[in-house]
Recover the amino acids of this structure.
């Protein structure tokens, strides 16, 4: 396995190929995502003959694109922050291939499955669930405490939004429909379209306006998901270029001091195998020589020690 991962050295042929494949998967995912979400925005204007189907889809796609351009990247950062740093960028310098395979495999499979069977689906829920599953799986794989190894505050913040949005839609749409029914008494407005006859001009304009707004909002929020997936890809495959601050001031001379102060806390670790690994890492760090340091080895040892400290002491007491 180690020899295989060596092929993924930064800017090697394998890394570039993996990067291209992952970018292609992001594009495929967004293409499949369009099967579901664009239909939500254009359904009313097509059903009421307010726009021709081809015109409606093209218009919705353009508004989605504008939404992505103007919507910022806060949602993309929210996705990236769901993963622990050692999953996003493995400490030994290897690319985060398992993370990327798990994420893209799950997201694409679920989107295709729901599209094939005609099941309404939110790809955002799928991607976020996959990221949470990866974070929890990594903690269980290394027998770490879930409370400290997973950023639950970030997870709960996103899950709350996902849980509240359907309720807000239900209450808002139901209340607005109730108000319109009591204020607008024209029975023709509540009848299904007849043949190819379009709706009234003002209703048609209102439907096109709502289609435009939904498409723009979808791009400004949901479109950032693909930006987040691209960020995860370049950070996971080329962490030295896109994840690490190469211009930061090295603090290697202090590593030995920090490692020595961490040793008594690591001794309290109640998992024999992982405690021994962390103690061995402490020993190597305490003998760190700034002139002969190997960055990937140093980083791996520091992650090992920090993982142990997460279990044995609160963050404010950690020397790292």
């Amino acid at each position: 396995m180690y020899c295989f991962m060596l092929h993924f050295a930064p800017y090697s042929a394998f890394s570039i190929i993996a990067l291209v494949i992952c970018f292609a998967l992001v594009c495929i995912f967004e293409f499949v995502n369009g099967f579901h979400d664009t239909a939500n925005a254009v359904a009313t204007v097509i059903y009421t003959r307010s726009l021709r189907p081809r015109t409606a889809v093209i218009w919705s796609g353009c508004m989605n694109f504008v939404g992505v351009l103007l919507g910022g990247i806060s949602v993309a950062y929210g996705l990236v922050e769901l993963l622990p740093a050692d999953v996003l960028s493995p400490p030994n310098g290897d690319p985060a291939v398992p993370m990327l395979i798990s994420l893209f495999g799950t997201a694409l499979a679920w989107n295709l499955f729901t599209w094939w069977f005609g099941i309404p689906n939110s790809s955002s829920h799928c991607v976020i669930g996959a990221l949470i599953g990866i974070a929890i799986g990594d903690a269980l794989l290394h027998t770490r405490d879930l409370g400290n190894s997973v950023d639950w505050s970030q997870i709960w913040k996103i899950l709350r939004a996902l849980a509240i949005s359907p309720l807000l839609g239900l209450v808002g749409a139901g209340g607005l429909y109730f108000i319109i029914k009591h204020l607008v008494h024209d029975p023709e407005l509540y009848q299904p379209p007849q043949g190819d006859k379009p709706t009234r001009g003002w209703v048609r304009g209102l439907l096109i306006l709502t289609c435009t707004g939904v498409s723009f909002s979808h791009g400004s929020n949901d479109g950032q998901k693909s930006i987040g997936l691209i960020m995860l890809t370049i950070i996971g495959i080329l962490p030295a270029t896109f994840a690490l601050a190469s211009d930061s001031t090295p603090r290697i001379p202090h590593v030995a001091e920090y490692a020595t102060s961490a040793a008594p806390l690591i001794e309290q670790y109640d998992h024999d195998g992982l405690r021994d690994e962390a103690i061995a890492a402490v020993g190597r760090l305490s003998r760190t020589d700034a002139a002969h340091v190997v960055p990937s080895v140093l980083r791996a040892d520091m992650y090992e020690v920090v993982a142990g400290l997460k279990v044995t002491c609160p963050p404010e007491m950690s020397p790292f």
Summary: Residues 1-8, 316-320 have pLDDT under 50 and may be disordered.
